Structures are given as structure tokens and as C-alpha cells.
Amino acid sequence: MPSLKLLAYLAVHPTELRSIIQWKVWHQPVHERDESKEGPEVKECFRLLNLTSRSFAAVIQELHPELLMPVTLFYLILRGLDTIEDDMTISIPKKEPLLREFWKIVDDTEWNFDGNGPNEKDRELLVKFDVVTKEYARIKPEYRVIITDITKKMGNGMADYILNSEHNEKGVDTIKDYELYCHYVAGLVGEGLTRLFVEAKLATPALLERPELMESMGQFLQQTNIIRDIREDHDDKRYFWPREIWSKYVDKLPDIFLPENKEKALQCQSEMILNAIRRADECLYYMAGVSEQSVFNFVAIPQTMAIATLELCFQNYTMFQRNIKITKGHACELMMQSTQNLQLVCEIFRKYARKIHHKNNPRDPLFLDISIACGKIEKFIETLYPTQNARTLKVTDASGTTQAPLSPEAEKQKKKEEEEARWDTVYIGLAVFTTIGLITLAMVGLAWMLGARFDLAFEQLLAGNLRPPENAAVIARSAGASLRAARSTVSAHNEL
């Protein structure tokens, strides 16, 4: 049941309401789960998926049947790993071996874990983790090899970070450290998914030869989340913005939230967003290598959400005051557009790149760099889908013969002729209306000369009588009789 706040918002934003209705009514999944063929453990896995994921659950369940369970289990396993890493109630001596050995745990069909704190939101997943591992044992060995490898890399990376006391106390230091952290929590996910897509023959193997593309897919999403969640992370005393960036603007990262540092906060934010959007073109390049529609939808929706979120955050000081996110109606609009084809996804990226460029502040030290980054996105899109205009399209005449594009002089002459044709149309219209006006005046003048009583007509109009009275015929006959009687009286008088 939608909240009253949401209903009130949609009441004054009808276009967003329209997008929600369109998504709910018209969206047709490429593939749908056949629950009649699912056992209780499979259904429990999907229940846990819906429980732990707000954004990915729906698109995962619309994946190609070949990838449905592997990707679902991949998500649940990494979510379980992340739940251990995020839980501050678990001591580091206990947490580290769990993270490093988690890749082995996934092969244990009896393993459960109830050591999370009572307030850990995804605690139930680990309590019932044996359901996940039992289904994991049933998928193809090729998929298990990929998932195990990524789980091992991610677990070790997380363990390294929790042992880094400087990171725990002061947060991320350099941009390199920042991107390494994003690699462990998101870049590896991009690598694992790409390997699954290629193994299922639903994406081109060439993607594996360009690891920077799959890395950018994960980096773009994770950096967007870190940028957007700055206020929430600050409230939790966690800091992921790298010192190498924020130290240019404030002495201590918490100072960025002070009202007197508003301009510096926005400048720091600009540099963080610049670091993210520089990867946008590689994300588009990656999506061009995905051949199956449901997989394309799966990778495209988060990316378009990310570019829209960056535009929402850019030059928006509200993100330092509270957590912000795109609205549900806006999200539905993006999902409708993102589940079509790459060209529409490119148009979304172009749209938000232009919005970021439009909001770019000339007083910002990175004004030029941000403008260049936005231009780079547009330039890349132009290489994929060139703009069609008179200079790029060949001209076909009435006989079907293809002609070369017009020269600048010929194009100028053509525009001049078109302009003259438009004025000819205007002149003809004026002549027609002038003629009609003169004829109307002549007819009114003739009627007046013949005795038409326009004064009486105006009186009736002013009185609101737009139609003749219903007894007009009776009145006319009575008036005629009175006139004849008057004429008889005059004749009799003359005879006397």
C-alpha cells in the first residue's frame, strides 16, 4: 500500500504517476519464472532474494532461464559475505577467517551462521544459508568455478580492509585506495557476472579481453552509491570519500557538512562525480557487447539509474543534509526506456550528461574538466549512433536516384528558397483574409442601406437573446394584421 506522502507527491507529479502505471501495466518480462517447476528450496532462495535486495531482485528474476539460478545464488552468496563484513558486532578476530574462508563455506551444504547482531537486516540469510548452499551444489560446475573464484577474491579483499587500522580510523586515503575498495566490492561482481554471461553464451567473449570495461561497470555503480550516501555514511561514522580529494577543500571530512563550507562541499562533490562519469563511455561500450535482451536489461537498468543519480547529486547541496535518491516514478521511466535497446540507453546517458553540463558552475575549479567529460560521453555516443542531418545523409530525389549532400552554397540557396516560400504562404493568407473582410463589409453596408435595423439586433444580443423567440411567427402574424388594419384606417380617412 503506497504511503500518503507518495500519493500526495504523485498527485502533483502526474507524469511520474503515468510512468509507474505504464511500468506496472505494460512491462512484459523477457522471461518469467515458472514457479510450478520450482521446489521448496528454490522458492526459499527467491524469497531470500526479495528479502535482501530492493533493486536487483526484480531484474534478476527476469533473466534467461540458463542464468536465473546461477545469478540468484551468486547474489545471495556475495550478500552473505557482505553481511558478515558490514556487521560491526562481530569482532575482527572472528570476522577475518570467516571472510577469507567463505569461498569454502559455500560448498558446505549444512553451514549456517547465527552470530550476527540482532539488528542486522540480512541476518536471516545467514541463518538459513544451507538453503543457498544446497542449491549452489546443483548448478553447473562451470558456474560454480566462477562464483567460487570471485567469492575468494572478494573475501580476501574485505579481510585486508578490516585489518587496515588506518582505513578503519581515517577512511580511504588515496584515489587508488578508493578505486581498489570499489574493485573489491563491485568491480569483482562485474567480472563474475561477465564470466557467467559469456559462459552461458549470452554475451560476446570479447568482453573478457577488455577487463577495464567490466571494471568500469562495477566502479560506476559503486562510486555513485558512495557519492550519494555521504550523509548516511557520515551519520554512521564511516568515510569512503578519499582524503586525496576532500583534503583539497577541508581539513577534516566532517567539516564538509558545516554550512559555512557549502561552496567547498559542492566543489569536492564535483570532483567525486567527475571521477565517476569518466567511466560512463566504457559502460556503454560494455553494454554493446551484450547480445541477449534479458541480460541487457539486467546490466542497463542499474547504469541508467546511476547516471540519473549523479545528475541529481551534482551541484545539489541537499545530499549533504539528507540522503537523496531518484523518485519511484522517475525510476519507472528509466526502466521503461532502459529495457528497449542500446540506442535508447545512449540517449539517457546523453540526456543526463547534458544536464550535468548545464548545471556545471563556471566558478568551479573543475568546470572545464567536467565539461570535457560530458563532451566525451556525447562524442562516444556519436560514434555509435551518428546524428542524422543534411550534412551526413545522402539526398534521394523523386526518381529514387541518390545524390551527394548539398554544398554549403547550395544549402544556403535552398534555405533562402524555403524562406521565400514561407513568406509567400503568409502573403496568400493575408490576401484571403483581406478579401473576406472587404466582402463582409460590403454586404453589411448594403443591408444597412436597404433598411436593416442593426441597432435592434445589437439590443437583442446585449439582452442575451441569441435566438429568435419561440412565438416569433405569432408576433409576425399579429404585426402583419395590425399593419393591414392601420392601412385600412388610413384609406378610409382619405376617402372622407
Automatic annotation (TrEMBL):
Q: Listed GO molecular functions?
A: D-glucose transmembrane transporter activity; squalene synthase [NAD(P)H] activity
Q: Which InterPro entries match?
A: Isoprenoid_synthase_dom_sf, Squ/phyt_synthse, Squal_synth-like, Squalene/phytoene_synthase_CS, Trans_IPPS_euk-type, Trans_IPPS_HH
Return the annotated region ranges for Disordered. 396-418
Q: Known EC number(s)?
A: 2.5.1.21
Q: Which reaction does it catalyse?
A: 2 (2E,6E)-farnesyl diphosphate + NADH + H(+) = squalene + 2 diphosphate + NAD(+); 2 (2E,6E)-farnesyl diphosphate + NADPH + H(+) = squalene + 2 diphosphate + NADP(+)
EC class name? transferase
Predominantly, its location class is: membrane
Skewed-composition ranges (Basic and acidic residues): 409-418
Superkingdom of origin organism = Eukaryota
Transmembrane portions of the chain: 426-450
Annotated localization: Membrane
Which Gene Ontology terms of cellular component type are present?
Answer: endoplasmic reticulum membrane
Cofactor(s) in the UniProt record = Mg(2+)
Q: In which pathway does it act?
A: Terpene metabolism; lanosterol biosynthesis; lanosterol from farnesyl diphosphate: step 1/3
**Single biological process term from Gene Ontology:** ergosterol biosynthetic process
User: Which keywords label this protein?
Assistant: Lipid biosynthesis, Lipid metabolism, Membrane, Multifunctional enzyme, Steroid biosynthesis, Steroid metabolism, Sterol biosynthesis, Sterol metabolism, Transferase, Transmembrane, Transmembrane helix
Family membership: Belongs to the phytoene/squalene synthase family.
NCBIfam families assigned to the protein according to its UniProt record, in alphabetical order: squal_synth
Q: Describe the function of this protein.
A: Catalyzes the condensation of 2 farnesyl pyrophosphate (FPP) moieties to form squalene.
Provide the protein name. Answer: Squalene synthase
This chain's source organism reads: Peltaster fructicola
